[in-house]
Amino acid sequence: MQAARENGAGGIGVLTGSFSRDQLEAEDPVAVLKDLSDTDGFLQLLGLQET
After folding, report:
1. Distance CA 34, CA 28 (A)
2. Rounded to whole angstroms, what are the CA distances from 9 to 16, 28, 41?
3. Read out DSSP for the chain?
4. How many beta carbons lie within 10 A of that of residue 24, not counting itself?
5. What is the Cα–Cα distance from 21 to 26, expressed in whole angstroms?
6. 33: β partners
7. In whole angstroms, what is the distance from residue 18 CA to residue 46 CA?
8. Predicted TM-score (pTM) of this structure
9. How distant, in Å, are the alpha carbons of 3, 26, 39 from that of 8?
10. Rounded to an integer, what distance in angstroms lies between the CA atom of residue 25 and that of residue 43?
11. How far is the C-alpha of 42 from the C-alpha of 30, rounded, in Å?
12. Which SUPFAM superfamilies does its entry note (predicted)?
């Protein structure tokens, strides 16, 4: 999240690592996802695919 903020981007937390949802949300991400299995939803979040 820090790298995203330092570069003017919004970070996206993914719950497949060692951080909890609460820890990720404390960093003020654009979103926190369970995983990346919903490819269409992820691409929509990034603005790379229309709904």
Report:
1. 16
2. 21, 12, 19
3. -HHHHHTT---EEETTSS--HHHHHTT--SEEES-S--HHHHHHHTTSS--
4. 20
5. 8
6. 14
7. 23
8. 0.80
9. 9, 18, 24
10. 20
11. 12
12. HAD-like
Tokens for 17, please give them.
């690592």
- Structure tokens belonging to residue 1: 């999240």
User: Residue 51 pLDDT more than 80?
Assistant: no
CB 29 within 8 A of CB 12: yes
**Residue with the two structure tokens 């299995």:** 37
Nearest to 36 by CA among 27, 28, 44: 44
Structure tokens at 45: 């979040």
